[in-house]
Design goal:
The longest helix is centred in the last third of the chain and has 20 residues. The protein is globular. The protein is built from 6 helices and 10 strands, in the order E-E-H-H-E-E-E-E-H-E-H-E-E-E-H-H. It has a domain of about 150 residues. By secondary structure, the chain is of the alpha+beta class. Strands 1, 2, 3, 4, 5, 6, 7, 8, 9 and 10 form a 10-stranded antiparallel sheet that branches.
Length: about 270
């Protein structure tokens, strides 16, 4: 086995996700409309799961019911997905009370393809959601993973020891370790918003008791309260433009923490792919 092997093909990406968030909880009626959209995507997302919460409502006397039979249930999570031949998830849509996320676990096909595909899938759901909610944040998540045959000297093998985002101490470690960072950035284009950049790096024991390096990067655009985002991403280029900027920021972050040899091995060059 090589010392470092990208697990997501040549680019090491094993998952990419697109998400939209809002603040207010959804009504049961809106959840039913979202659930009914399954018929339009059933060929690509054949399985549907609905998970409910049990809630207790006070009676006229202001007391909670003594019997659990008097409690009510409401849908709190909808999952549409498709499975691979090995039983693992191929791709999925998750909708809860305050967010919708599209997760793709298939081979990464390039930024433009991934973005266009995700927005096309999400657009009907976002259109229905816009009847009740205002989107306050949206973003992308990348999950890169590498198989390794030893943890000794791993940080030196993979990371740039001059990176301002990494603590120098990790370059002295020969066992499992973990680093998490997050920070805000102000952005004025194409509309005023705030970026929240998070990345999580960990060395863990993976399948077959072999060590694995995982890098999870989440880039979110948080919309200022006075800024109105259109109801559907297909009505404007604003959301697409911001997502592309977040993608570029993600790549810049990776290039700032990985050393040049690893960047080259996973095609992390200057092109926005």
């Amino acid at each position: 086995m090589k010392t470092l092997v990208p697990l997501g093909g040549k680019d090491s990406i094993v998952q990419i996700s697109f998400g939209f968030e809002w603040r207010s909880h959804l009504s049961p009626f809106l959840f039913s409309l979202l659930s009914a959209l399954h018929k339009n995507i059933k060929n690509d997302f054949p399985r549907k799961q609905e998970i409910s919460d049990v809630i207790s409502i006070k009676n006229k006397a202001g007391k909670f019911p003594e019997s659990t039979s008097d409690n009510q249930s409401r849908t709190s999570l909808i999952i549409f997905d498709a499975l691979k031949a090995d039983g693992n998830v191929k791709h999925q849509i998750q909708i809860n009370q305050t967010s919708i996320v599209y997760n793709n676990f298939e081979s990464y096909s390039g930024w433009e393809n991934e973005q266009d595909h995700a927005l096309a899938i999400l657009e009907p759901f976002l259109s229905v959601l816009s009847r009740e909610v205002k989107f306050v944040a949206f973003g992308i998540q990348y999950f890169n993973a590498f198989g390794i045959d030893k943890t000794d000297g791993l940080a030196t093998l993979v990371f740039d020891d001059k990176s301002e985002f990494l603590p120098p101490y990790i370059f002295k470690l020969n066992d499992l370790w973990h680093v998490h960072q997050g920070f805000f950035e102000e952005a004025a284009e194409p509309i005023t918003h705030k970026r929240l950049i998070n990345f999580d790096i960990q060395v863990v024991i993976g399948d077959n008791d072999l060590p694995k390096l995982e890098i999870r990067s989440i880039s979110r655009a948080i919309i200022n309260g006075d800024t109105h985002i259109v109801k559907s991403p297909n009505e404007t280029n604003t959301i697409k433009e911001i997502l592309s900027l977040l993608h570029s920021r993600h790549k810049k972050m990776l290039r700032s923490i990985l050393n040049s040899n690893v960047c080259k091995s996973i095609n992390l060059n200057g092109k926005e792919e």
